[in-house]
Each structure stands twice: as C-alpha cells, then as structure tokens.
Amino acid sequence: KIKNFGLLIVKDFQEIIREKGGEIFKDVPELLKRIKDMGYMVLLASNGRREYLESIIDKFNLTFEPFVTVDEKGITRKAQILEYYLKEYHLNPDEVIMVGDRTSDIDAAFENKCPFVGCLFGHGNLEEIKKADYLIHNIHEILNVIDEIERKTVA
Asked: How many CB atoms lie under 10 A from the CB of residue 56?
C-alpha cells in the first residue's frame, strides 16, 4: 500500500506540473537546444523519478537524450547514472561535463572522473560545491565553461 501511495503522489505531481506549471530557470529550454545544436549530447542525471522528470520535460519542452533514473537498471545513486551514460554512449570522462548544485552532483562527477561545473544558484550552496572545477553564477555562464574546456582540449 505504501508503494501505491507513493505512485499516487507522483501522479498528483505530474498533473500539477502539466496543468499549473512550475518554474525553471529563465532561458533553459533555449540554452539546452543551443548546446545540442553545437553538437553536444544533453543528458539528465537526477535523483527524481522518471514520471516526475518526464512531466517537467514535457511541460517546458526540454531537450535531452534518452535518460535513466534512479530505480532503473539497478541504479540507486546519481554517480551510477553518470557511469551508465559513459558506458551506454561510449564516452570518456573528459568528454562529459557534469553540471549541478548539490553534493550528490559533485560526488557523481568526481567518482566518474568528469569535470564538474558547480552552480551558485539553485538548491545547494557554496559549501557543498566549493571543490568544483568551475563555478558559475547563472546558467548562461555554462557556454563560457564549454568554450574554456574546448580551448584546453585543443591546446
């Protein structure tokens, strides 16, 4: 019965998001599309359930490659999601940039030896992500980080 209760809550969240919306950071859909148009894959690594994430993706018309979530394919932690993507998409750790604002994000990146971009906006705080390879103050700065990483790779 508890599992059914949890599914009801997720279903309610889905309906609320689809009907009433919610908020995401300004310009995120356009930014994700731009990154994808630059030839990059845009992958999702979240602790959220698939139904919840899909309702947000649908509501805000976000662009991601096929993704996995916790509770799928034996995955229980965000680091395992990143590990799955490295294997599934045949990527090297230096070909992936993990972006996030929480300890679980930086831990996932470091565990998989991927560069980490810490967001100084959102749910986390500087203390959680202070060891990030890069720190950004707004989502648009991610393009500067991509440019910087590309320059380092070419040099």
From this structure: 19
